[in-house]
Fold:
Amino acid sequence: MNYQINSVQCIKFSIVILIGLSISMPSCKNKDASIDVYVAGQIKIKDAFLPAYWKNGKQFILAQREGKVTAITVSGKNVYAVGYLESKPYQIVLWTNGIIRNITDGLESDYAYNIAILGKDVYIVGYKNNNNNEIAAYWKNGIVKYLADSSHNSKAYSIAVSGNNIYIAGYKNSGTKDIATYWKNGTAIALTNGDQDAYGCGIALSGADVYIGGLENKTIKYWKNDDEDVIGKIGNSSCDINCIAANGTDVYMAGFDYSGTHNMAKYWKNKEAAIPLKDNLKGIEASQIAVAGDNVYVTGEDNSGSYLWKNGIPVPPFNATRNIFATALYIVINK
Structure:
């Protein structure tokens, strides 16, 4: 038996999902469990950036051509990684236990941000490029389903799957501003009024509650069942894809504040003061977050390389190793 947690929530998987999710628990504390930590992205070898992932620090290169893993998840004994190969334009690909499958034809610049597994179904979210218009979309078992029309740009960043419900976070452009949006089973729900640019970057489920982490007017915030709470410094904070995790009634967000001269990676628990990350050099931006019991994992990167923190302490080899650029995060708790 195992519990699986990705960077968006804390859940128990008897049927599994992801950077997206499935059956949530009020708590996933298990002091007797071992934890597998998956981090994914790319590694620079000579002058090439190759798609790769790491399990507990052990490296797996997925292709001998340039590309990147943008999200990773685990279901049972299977490891799923989604990303792209740098054909021009980019082509979305899926690796299942290292075996590659093309999701898009490579004729347009499509992009995948997240992946979820539920039973035998594979869900990938991102956007589909249509005549230079970016349209929020998801792929179920390789079949594309659009979440918006092509009148204005939109993107889907994060997905959570529970039972028969599919939750997706992202944004839709109104023609003047980007509006933070989430979709439940394809129906769009606006989280902001369009006065300022805003984005739904991550999604987490805990019990019957839906949490959307995001950004509005350079301020980190989250929405619980549509109700808004501000987390970061108003006008001086930001976050990335899959920036939120929920564990019972506790909400965690990763991101960064701007000090006036540089960015500083941080994470927040509920609405408490930001929690510092050690060896946090100037310019580092925290990306994704996952919670396993009392342990909090955060990834981040700068122009030099990537970081993984466990309870604020850097974990090698993800401590600014200059040839590793990996921020996709997924946690499995083995019992």
In short: Residues 8-32 have pLDDT under 50 and may be disordered. The first strand starts at residue 2 and ends at 6. The chain is about 0% helix and 65% strand. Residues 139 and 212 are 21 Å apart (CA to CA).
